[in-house]
Amino acid sequence: MRKDYKTTKGYGEHEIIISKSRFICYVDRAETEEEALSFIEKIKKKHPNATHNCSCYLIGEHNHIQKANDDGEPSGTAGVPMLEVLKKQGLQDTVVVVTRYFGGIKLGGGGLIRAYGKSTTEGIQAAQVVERKLHHVMKVAIDYTWLGKVENEVRGSHYTLRDIQYTDGVELYVFVLKNEEEAFIHWLTELTNGQATITCVEKHFVEFVIS
Predict the structure, then answer these.
(1) What predicted TM-score, i.e. pTM, was given to this entire model?
(2) What secondary structure does DSSP assign to the chain, as a single string?
(3) What's the mean per-residue pLDDT of the chain?
């Protein structure tokens, strides 16, 4: 499983006007190439009469899937600048489409690169960026007599309580950052005088909005 990484929170769109041309940026998360291609096709169907629907995507832990498409703009002036924005921001699993309606004024190569780059940057801002941090879900099994104290201490800590299940005893499920498992176990063991049974049940990414 990959380590912590940045991606978009989800869908976002943003429009700007540059020299009378409309640039509409659409951004979404895509964890497979199939998802990225499906998103691009959806936007193309939404704007069948657009002058251009340029696109790019960056997918995988090591960005092993990356594509850029100029869709009729001069080579290297649209898809590649868009892709470079994703790389500079350190994003993964992200797809972008910038739809352009030509306004009658030619921008030139440099102008196009700046326009598509700006549109992508502002589209990403609209979608928001999150950091996905790998956590371990720790199960804390205790007797009911310990519930009040343990729940209060966990809620007051930097750990995140995901769920509480009530059976013959009580099971608290807590998000613990990767590499903090031993400290968490030691803390709960001290807190309960060794009366808690603590196990890691799964790994899970937790998202934090960073912009």
Answers:
(1) 0.85
(2) ---SEEEE-S-EEEEEEETTEEEEEEEEE-SSHHHHHHHHHHHHHH-TT-SEEEEEEEESTT--EEEEE-TTSSTTSSHHHHHHHHHHTTB-SEEEEEEEE--S---HHHHHHHHHHHHHHHHHHHH-EEEEEEEEEEEEEE-GGGHHHHHHHHHTSSSEEEEEEESSSEEEEEEEETT-HHHHHHHHHHHTTT--EEEEEEEEEEEEE--
(3) 96
